Amino acid sequence: GDSVTQMEGPVTLSEEAFLTINCTYTATGYPSLFWYVQYPGEGLQLLLKATKADDKGSNKGFEATYRKETTSFHLEKGSVQVSDSAVYFCALLGNAGNMLTFGGGTRLMVKP
Amino acid sequence: DTGVSQNPRHKITKRGQNVTFRCDPISEHNRLYWYRQTLGQGPEFLTYFQNEAQLEKSRLLSDRFSAERPKGSFSTLEIQRTEQGDSAMYLCASERGGHDTQYFGPGTRLTVL
């Protein structure tokens, strides 16, 4: 079945550092890929998405490129801020159904 | 859009009691999903409605769980004879059909004592 694997956290960075959170997936066909963010005490918010190979999703300075050859969708940001501290979830929407399959989440902590 | 709303936000109950949660989707979103999230894990799919029809259910949804969406608008998720293992965050999401993007509510945190 479909699965998503994320790097384990927590990831601790200083403000203005470069961020990469790795995400790889297993799925049949051509899934859509998503990054969701969960701030403390809040629900999941869609951060960005990509629906086909080589698409780049971007939002709020975050980017991720859909790489079918490596089945990856790594999240990057050039300069993180304290306000980016949250849990980040990679997810896929497979061809077999309408449910999202999530990774385990990666906690990001940004220190001033 | 006013967003997806869920009530209650928190529920504490004793083992063996029944609980019911409500989800109000974004208006005109015809698809509605329920997920469960345990501490430190990603959400896991429970069930999915298109309008009032329940189209898919996960193996996680035991016979103690039932979900309804009677008029194709709000949905309820009921858990009968709760167990401590049911303690989790229950998330609802809605989607405008064909747009491939699910919007999540704040969740209902259930604690079973």
Give a description of the structure.
The complex is a heterodimer of chains A (112) and B (113). Chain A is 0% helix and 51% strand. With 112 residues, chain A is mostly beta strands. In chain A, strands 2, 5, 6, 10, 11 and 12 form a six-stranded mixed β-sheet that branches. In chain A, strands 3-9-8-7 form a four-stranded antiparallel β-sheet, with no helix packed on it. In chain A, strands 1-4 form a two-stranded antiparallel ribbon. The model of chain A has no long low-confidence stretch (mean pLDDT 94). In chain B, the strands form two sheets. In chain B, strands 2, 4, 5, 6, 9, 10 and 11 form a seven-stranded mixed β-sheet that branches. Chain B has a four-stranded antiparallel β-sheet with strand order 1-3-8-7, with no helix packed on it. The radius of gyration of chain B is 13 Å and the shape is globular. The N and C termini of chain B lie far apart (36 Å). The model of chain B has no long low-confidence stretch (mean pLDDT 93). The chains are: A mainly beta (112), B mainly beta (113). The A-B interface holds A 4, 32, 34, 36, 42-46, 49, 51, 89, 91, 93, 97-105 and B 4, 31, 33, 35, 40-45, 48, 55-56, 58, 91, 93, 95, 100-107.
